[in-house]
């Protein structure tokens, strides 16, 4: 019976005009999925489409011949705990609806575009999100296993050191920031007396001017009023004379007489009240205007001295703008920068001493965080090595030795106070050596599978993709590889491209890629096979189509 997984990370893959695929809509199942087909049928296009969805670079050669563009769309169902949600929020991408993340890539001869939840995004952002979605293992991907950083991250994942690694990373960043600030200040050239004099002059000149934002906002208006004071007074006097009684009845007097007449008319004929009512409002508003004009006239200042003072202030402000910026805000910012620069110069010695003390204190915190992380890694390393050995022996390394060596660093590094080296000895009697020195591609692939098996309960990446990592192994070992993938399928969604019937027979779901002709074109098709069709495909993979091959295929399925 095949193991079932509740995890169904990749729920939809839609491909259009990519290489041999004209249109493909795939809704992969959960658990362990295998994809098979003859060489050249287009299996690599499926993996290539997933890689494009994760942010791999693309070029126009991927576009199906005769078409203008190709596209890939993938839908991933994310748990609430997925770090992708935080990444989307940080970059202002619309949140996932019902937990579904929609990724789309469009490749054309002139430009490539990518989208997250229908929002345009950068390729780097797509890669950042993709790193949390899928763990790819292809002919070259497992080479990353030879890097020290990758090995250290695997050890920390196994030991569940997330809290300790975060504490160390925070301490290391603070320590580095303090050291960088100290070096910048220490190596900065001492300020010349002329610079200090210039900075002080700038601050004194701006302070002496005494401008405030409130004054600057009203200065131009007040100057315009003072400059036109005589003309403004003439206009106000003329308006008041039209309202007041001088040589004849003024407008105000006439309106008051009109109001009295309307009152008498309304008293004698009440039907006129409705349309005469606005006249009362006009009379009141005119009184208000007359009062305002009188007040405005009293406020007008036609003093030449005040005009001269305002002109001087405007000229001074313009002079400061020419020196320090185009606005009052620029002038204020220049003053603050000069004050800060003076403070740094005049208090350089004191600041250096403060930074020295801070660096020493931060180094103590860093050492404490590093020692805690080192202790945890030292405890986890032999347990991880033991688990990898166990899984490796099940994958054909019967007498292999696996060790994890931790070497202290002379100075604290960004990931801890030690470096790690995975040591592997595939043959008895030979000393263990670093993976990068002895392991072949096939060996690395199986070791990676052993590590993934050791981390199965702690690996948070829901989708694992294996692209022909069982190449160059024997049939018995291939069966073991298949069993490992089947076990991983209990906790992950696992997709495997394979040429081995021993592996394919263990999958929960079997998909077949085939080439077909449509008109004068060749296309690739993907479909799930079951029962008799699955037996036929396994028989083909066994190297024949006769009764004997079918019997072997049935036996493989029954023993899966």
Distinctive features:
560 residues; alpha/beta; 19 helices; elongated
How would you sum up this structure, described in words?
The protein is an alpha/beta fold and 560 residues long. Helix content is 54%, strand content 18%. The strands form three sheets. It has a six-stranded antiparallel beta sheet, with helices on one face. Helix 13 packs across helix 15 (441-454).
Topology:
Blueprint: E1 10-18, E2 21-26, E3 32-36, H1 43-53, E4 70-77, H2 84-90, E5 100-107, E6 112-116, E7 119-120, H3 123-130, E8 134-137, H4 148-159, H5 162-187, H6 193-209, H7 213-227, H8 229-243, H9 251-268, H10 273-299, H11 304-324, H12 328-346, H13 348-394, E9 401-413, E10 416-425, E11 433-434, H14 435-438, H15 441-454, E12 463-467, H16 475-488, E13 493-497, H17 501-504, E14 509-518, E15 521-529, H18 532-541, H19 547-558
Parallel strand pairs: 3-13, 3-14, 8-12, 12-13
Antiparallel strand pairs: 1-2, 1-4, 4-5, 5-6, 6-7, 9-10, 10-11, 14-15
Helix pairs in contact: 4-13, 5-13, 6-12, 7-11, 8-10, 9-10, 11-12, 13-15, 15-16, 18-19
């Amino acid at each position: 019976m095949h193991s079932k997984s509740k995890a169904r990370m990749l729920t939809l893959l839609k491909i259009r005009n990519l290489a041999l695929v004209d249109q493909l809509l795939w809704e992969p199942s959960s658990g362990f999925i295998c994809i098979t087909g003859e060489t050249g049928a287009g299996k690599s296009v499926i993996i290539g489409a997933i890689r494009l969805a994760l942010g791999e670079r693309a070029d126009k050669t991927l576009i199906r011949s005769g078409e203008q563009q190709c596209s890939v769309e993938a839908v991933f169902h994310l748990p609430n705990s997925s770090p992708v949600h935080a990444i989307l929020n940080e970059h202002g991408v619309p949140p996932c609806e019902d937990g579904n993340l929609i990724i789309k890539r469009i490749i054309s001869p002139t430009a490539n575009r990518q989208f997250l939840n229908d929002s345009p995004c950068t390729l780097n952002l797509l890669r950042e999100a993709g790193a949390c979605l899928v763990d790819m293992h292809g002919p070259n991907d497992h080479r990353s296993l030879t890097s020290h950083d990758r090995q250290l991250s695997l050890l920390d994942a196994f030991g569940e050191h997330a809290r300790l690694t975060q504490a160390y990373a925070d301490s290391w960043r603070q320590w580095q920031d303090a050291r960088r600030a100290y070096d910048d200040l220490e190596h900065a050239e001492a300020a010349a007396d002329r610079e200090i004099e210039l900075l002080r002059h700038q601050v004194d000149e701006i302070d002496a001017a005494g401008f405030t934002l409130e004054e600057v906002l009203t200065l131009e208006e007040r100057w315009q009023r003072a400059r036109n004071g005589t003309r403004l007074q003439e206009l106000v006097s003329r308006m008041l004379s039209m309202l007041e009684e001088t040589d004849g009845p003024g407008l105000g007097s006439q309106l008051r007489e009109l109001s009295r007449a309307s009152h008498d008319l309304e008293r004698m004929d009440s039907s006129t009240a409705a349309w005469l009512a606005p006249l009362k409002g006009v009379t009141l508003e005119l009184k208000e205007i007359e009062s305002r004009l009188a007040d405005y006239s009293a406020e007008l200042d036609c003093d030449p001295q005040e005009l001269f003072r305002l002109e001087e202030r405007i000229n001074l402000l313009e002079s400061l703008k020419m020196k320090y910026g185009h606005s009052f805000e620029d002038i204020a910012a220049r003053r603050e920068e000069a004050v800060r620069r003076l403070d740094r110069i005049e208090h350089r010695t004191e600041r250096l001493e403060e930074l020295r003390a801070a660096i020493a204190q931060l180094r103590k915190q860093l050492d404490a965080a590093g020692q805690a992380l080192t202790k945890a890694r030292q405890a986890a390393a032999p347990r991880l090595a033991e688990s990898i050995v166990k899984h490796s022996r099940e994958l054909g390394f019967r007498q292999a030795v696996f060790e994890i060596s931790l070497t202290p660093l002379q100075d604290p590094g960004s990931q801890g106070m030690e470096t790690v080296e995975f040591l592997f000895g595939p043959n008895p009697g030979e000393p263990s050596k670093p993976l990068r020195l002895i392991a072949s591609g096939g060996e690395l692939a199986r070791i990676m599978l052993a590590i993934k098996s050791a981390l199965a309960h702690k690996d948070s990446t829901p989708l694992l993709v294996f692209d022909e990592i069982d190449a160059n192994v024997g049939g018995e070992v291939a069966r073991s590889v298949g069993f490992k993938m089947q076990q991983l399928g209990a906790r992950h969604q696992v997709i495997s491209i394979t040429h081995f019937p021993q592996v394919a027979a263990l999958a929960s779901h079997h998909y077949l890629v085939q080439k077909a002709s449509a008109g004068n074109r060749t296309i690739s098709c993907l479909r799930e096979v079951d029962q008799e069709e699955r037996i036929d495909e396994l028989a083909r993979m066994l190297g024949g189509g006769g009764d004997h091959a079918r019997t072997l295929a049935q036996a493989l399925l029954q023993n899966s």
